[in-house]
Amino acid sequence: IAATQGKRLGAWPWITLGAGAVALGGSLGFELLRRSSESDAKQQSTQLGFQNSLDRMDSRKTDARILLGVGGALVLAGGVLLWVDRGSAQPRTGLGLACVPGACAFAGRSEF
Question: Which residues, in sequence order, are CB contacts of 70 under 8 Å at separation 6+?
Answer without folding.
Answer: 20, 23
